[in-house]
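re: ur question from the group chat, yeah i did fold both. here u go
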Amino acid sequence: MGNKRGVVTSFLIIAQIVFIVLFAVMVEYDPHHTGPTHLSKGDVTEKNNEDQLLYPMFQDVHVMMLVGFGFLMTFLKRHGFGSVGFNFLLTCYVIQWSLLVNGWFTMLTKNVSTIQLSLENFLHADFAVAAVLISFGAILGVASPVQLLVMATIEVVFYNLSFYVTARFNLIDVGGSIVIHAFGAYFGLAAAFVMSKFKPYTSEKEGSVYHSDLFATIGTIFLWLFWPSFNAGPATGNERHRAIINTILSLSACTTVTFAMSAAVSKKNKFNMVHIQNAAIAGGVAMGASADLLVQPYAALLIGSAAAILSVIGYAYIQPALEKAIGLHDTCGVHNLHGMPGVLGAILSAIFTSMATKEVYGDSYEKLILRGDSSEQAKYQIHSLLVSLAIALISGAFTGLFMSLPIWDRLDSKELYEDSIFWEEDEEEEKDAKEGKVFIPLITSSS
């Protein structure tokens, strides 16, 4: 039975108190960015300029988390409040938790005694949010808010472990194809697979209606618009400029080919909104690991096109086959949007790094080929992918098992994909929900 009184309230209040205490003890401003500082005036000006360039990109990523991901998940006909609302909750919770966990790993690697906050910390916190929201997509509508918070708490730790290990391998992954998209997808899929063994995910409420699909497409468009900032945010200089250009090209080609493929796989030669909402932005995922490389514009278009083909095939054929074969339920199809395109991006990054030369890359060679040799870098791109996937699958399966404990408000079959379990609605709407009537309530305004 979901929504036991006091469980989610207790969890959030206790967590917030713990956050406040830990921030009081361990966290301070980074004086190089916030002052007071003993740096020269020129160094201070340089730091301020860096922050002014970074803040718009950080805000773009922030919009992706709250509006893009939030509305992308509103396609379910009786789960609009839960999609946007729990997305909002997870974002705010994970920002605080990931600032601490990210900081602890930084303390470990840099041998410092405190967590020093700058704008860059918040950008990386948003990247942790992205991984959690991707996993959220795999179990959308089948997990209570307490289960989601438990998942987020555990996932942030293993996300940082994966990030730490792959950083030791000198991974190039500016847009997070491996450490964000592939990790988040396969963590969520492993959790979903284990959870399904305790409760089947069958419900007539799983599905969309016209208006819910329209809202979800708003999320798609926001993600499309701001994805260049997601891929380019951690980069600087020429590498950032390349990442923006490559991502826009990849997304443009991806959307174009998605429309073509969607009609091609339809027996009626019609477009499928599920494909348009999701596969159209898979080019941003696949481009991530190679975004700041000199891949050339035509290759960026090819990457986006390949991502579209792979993603549409995933939605049309692979996802139904996996559900039939092993019972893998994936509410949002994160395997098709984030998982397979993330793996594709990793493989492509290995190919492109193996082709890199000092003559072609010039000053960028030392910035990007971190292991000093192109073939060595390519090898460790694949090693990083395998390690990240292993950590995601093992920790995701464990998390799914832990989330399935009855103490975490496990949902009954009749409570799946249903807003009225956790959200206040008009009495008539709640009555309709209990009777099994599924429709999107009209939005009214009051003065």
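okk and heres the other one u asked abt
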Amino acid sequence: REKIDFFFLMIRRPPRSTQSRSSAASDVYKRQPQQVPETLLLKRFGDMMNQNELKKCYIGAGYYNTITPPVVQRNILENPQWYTSYTPYQAEISQGRLESLLNFQTMICELTGLEQSNASLLDEGTAAAEALNLCYGTFSSKKNVFLVSKDVFPQTIEIVKTKAKFLNVEIIVDDVSKFDYKSHKERLCGVLIQYPDNFGSVRNYETLIQQIKTEAEAKVVLATDLLALTLIKSPGELGADIAIGTAQRFGVPMGYGGPHAAFMAVREEFQRKIPGRVVGISKDAQGRSAYRLALQTREQHIRREKATSNICTAQALLANISVMYAIYHGPRGLKEIARRVNSLAQILFLGLNDLGYQTVQKCKTNIFDTVAINFEQTNMADHLITFLQDNDINIRRIDDHHVSISFDETTTLEDLEQLLQHFAKFNNKETIQINKIIQEET
């Protein structure tokens, strides 16, 4: 009751003409306390937020802690000239933001190995839904089956299913390595694969992608991780047609789940079908190079019923933050962050195996930032999660038999050592020293 009354503080009294429309509404407004100063309101909010229990998070699955460079936070994230700006329809007063978004597109193209990128989408799940829409439209709606790997993030699978329902597209969730593509050649429009996958495994899909294109003539979509792409083969090198994902771990705080900027990159043949906005370089009246919105195929106000998408536009501010993060660190800096995260995950993999855990990955080279553990007994995964929660640590429960631990750029050696101590205690083993693991490997 106290919290309900508190939120009534933020409801302004309606005009007199509306106060008598509903007796129920009248009762609500009678209960409304007097308005309070903003400072008191913020203090009450702060007191409520302090009730949150802060635990070390290793959940991952597309959401990772990150360090926003102070110069980016101060000059972009907290700068009203950046965060209050709307769609840059007037190019003559938006050159700075357009140049930054063009840099974002360039960054995505370089990391994915594909020719064309848009100026961001909403999040990874809706980007996957857009990829479904693109694959379906490529075949003029004649192919209406879309295959989703069972190792795609679960939240992405649910969003794709929802989108497919309204397109009358059949979604098949299956093992893409064992799927019969020849028998689905006439109906299969596309295949969605997670890279690295839901368990954190990094696999080379080059042969599989070639098989899909040969046997089913379908389009291939890879949902990928930008930081991982600084070290592993790009979707373009593997032969994928479309790459999607989120730029969140490039300096954008988790923010209790969002918002975050997604991306989509495609081969040149799809450049006029890509959803969202595309920033390009043109010439102004004096013949000088200038930036403008080159393609807006998504926009309903231009193409109406022929728009390539009806999912709401983009996350331009967060796309700008992610590309400024990349500019701040540079290619070498991004690779150093990725190698450090990868090294910590590999040490965890070796330590867990020494402690008697059965990891999903059989080789450390199949790991980027996530290690998954398999339990034969059904209740062991839940017991481990509860044990770690009691020690202020959150890991991810994949299913009844699997959990995973994901690292990011905020993870330290001390965090890793603490984790190994808890895993040793849970399995009734002696603690393994990190230095010993490193020495045995070298």
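fwiw on the second one: The CA atoms of residues 300 and 306 lie 8 Å apart. The longest strand covers residues 188-195. idk if thats what u expected
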